[in-house]
C-alpha cells in the first residue's frame, strides 16, 4: 500500500490534536480563533510527517494565509507524494456556539488523484450504497428523484428523509419536498457530515441534496468512495474571476457533473475527529487531565470503512 497504516495513524493523531486545539473555544463565540488554533496545529503536525504533500483543497489562496491554502506544500519531503484536502474546522459556528456536529477533517490521496477544486459552491446529490449507481441525477426534478428513490427502496414518500442546508437558495426544493410529503432534515451548517449520513440506516437519512461548499463536496466524496455510496456534484461558478480561477486549476468544462471517480482515484484516506458531539461521533472530552477524541476513518485499499478510533492525549 502506498498510503501506509503509519500514515493513517498519524493523520488520526493530527485531526485529534487539531480538534483538541479547538476545545478551549467551544462555546466562546470565537469562530476565527477556533479555526486558527486548529489550522496551526494541523499545519505544524503535517509538516513533521514523512510526506511530500500538497494542499489541493484548502481554505483559500496564498494571500489569505495563515489558513492552509491551496498549493501549500506540506511535510518534510521524505515520503510518498500525496494530495491533501483540509477542513481544520468543519462547522466553525458549531464550535463557537457549542452546538452538535463540528469536526476536524483531513483527506489524502496519491498525488494527482484528488480533484483540485476552487472555493465555490457545489450542487450535490448523495445516496447510500443500496441505490444503484447512476439512478438519480442532479439534473432530474426533485419529484423524479424522489419517485426513483421510492421505486428502488419501496419506501413511501412519507418514509423518506431528505437532508438539506436551510438556506434561501433552497426555497424551491424545500417547497417541492413538502408538496411531495417527504420529511426534511434541515442543516444549519456542516454538509460534510450530512453527506455521510446516507451511509448507514441508523442515521435515518435517505438522500442528501442541495447546494453546499465545493471543497466540502470533494472531502465527503473521499469517504463516500470507500463506503460505496453515490455522490454527484456540479460546481457553480458565478463571477468571472471564479470561472477564470477554475480554468487555471485545470477545470475545462465548467458545467461538468462530477461522479466520485472524477473526484478521487487510487488510494485514499479520510479522517474526521469530532470537536462537539454530533451524529457521527463524540466530541472532545477532557477527563482526569486527558483528552479523549473520537475519529472516523476510511481507507479504501484496506477496506477500512467508517472505523471509529479513540485517541487519549495527556
Ligand atoms: C456548507 C457547510 C459548511 O458552508 O458547505 C456551507 O457544510 C455552504 O456555504 O459548514 P453557505 O454557508 O454560504 O451556505 C459552511 O456552512 C461553512 O463552511
What does this protein look like?
This protein has helices spanning about 5-20, 30-45, 90-95, 140-155, 170-180, 190-195, 215-225, 240-250, 260-265; strands at about 50-55, 75, 80-90, 105-110, 120-125, 160-165, 185, 205-215, 230-235, 260, 270-275, 285, 290-300, 305-314. It is of the alpha+beta class and about 325 residues long. The chain has two domains: about 5-110 and about 265-310, 2-Layer Sandwich (Fructose-1,6-Bisphosphatase, Chain A, domain 1), CATH 3.30.540.10; about 120-265, D-Maltodextrin-Binding Protein, domain 2, CATH 3.40.190. Strands 1, 2, 3, 4, 11, 12, 13 and 14 form an eight-stranded mixed sheet that branches. A six-stranded mixed sheet has the order 7-6-8-5-9-10, sandwiched between helices. It is globular. The protein binds 7-O-phosphono-alpha-L-galacto-hept-2-ulopyranose. 7-O-phosphono-alpha-L-galacto-hept-2-ulopyranose (VTB) binds near residues 190 and 212.
